[in-house]
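Quick one, tokens below. Sequence please?
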């Protein structure tokens, strides 16, 4: 039983250490291009506007604007694929 307690405490310390390292150390994979940043900001602004309009009492307008968020993110993916193809030299 002592072995299990020691193992579980070691695992919990490892999980906490990994979690704090991922929070404090920036990942190299998270660098956004300018277009990705702009698309993400547009999606966030659309989401916030949709929530604000909903609470202002305009439910149908809020739903309409809320539908923009996945569309904006889909266009971001399309632009990223296109940009990647251009960078690789494909057409």
């Amino acid at each position: 039983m002592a072995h299990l307690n020691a193992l579980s405490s070691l695992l919990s310390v490892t999980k906490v250490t990994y979690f704090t390292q991922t929070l404090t150390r920036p990942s190299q994979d998270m660098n956004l291009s300018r277009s990705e940043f702009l698309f993400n900001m547009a999606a966030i602004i659309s989401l916030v506007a949709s929530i604000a309009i909903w609470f202002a009492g305009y439910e149908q307008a809020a739903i309409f604007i809320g539908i923009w968020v996945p569309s904006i993110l889909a266009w971001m993916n399309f632009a990223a694929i296109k940009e990647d193809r251009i960078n690789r030299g494909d057409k």
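The chain has one domain: 2-88. The mean pLDDT is 78.
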